[in-house]
Amino acid sequence: MNHYTEKVDATCIMTKIQSAVAKVLPDGAKTEMHRQLTEPGSAN
């Protein structure tokens, strides 16, 4: 398994976890989570 494949697998797992958590969070918490993920510099 190369580095790229490991990163894709980890990203996939995190996406699934975030999706599962979002199903049980109240709307305000989902809004805050989305804000943190999309603010400038959050990809660094």
Which terms summarize this structure?
44 residues, mainly alpha, 2 helices, 77% helix
Can you describe what's shown?
The protein is an all-alpha fold and 44 residues long. It has 2 helices and no strands. The two termini are 25 Å apart. The mean pLDDT is 82.
Quick description:
The protein is mainly alpha-helical and 44 residues long. It has helices at 3-24, 27-38.
The beta-strand count equals 0
Largest sheet: none
> What's the gyration radius in Å?
13 Å
How would you sum up the global shape? flat
Strand content is: under 5%
Mean pLDDT: 82
Number of helices: 2
Helix content: over 70%
Order of helices and strands: HH
Given helix and strand content, the structural type is mainly alpha
Catalogue the unreliable spans.
Answer: none
Span from first to last CA? 25 Å
Write the layout of secondary structure elements.
Layout: H1 3-24, H2 27-38
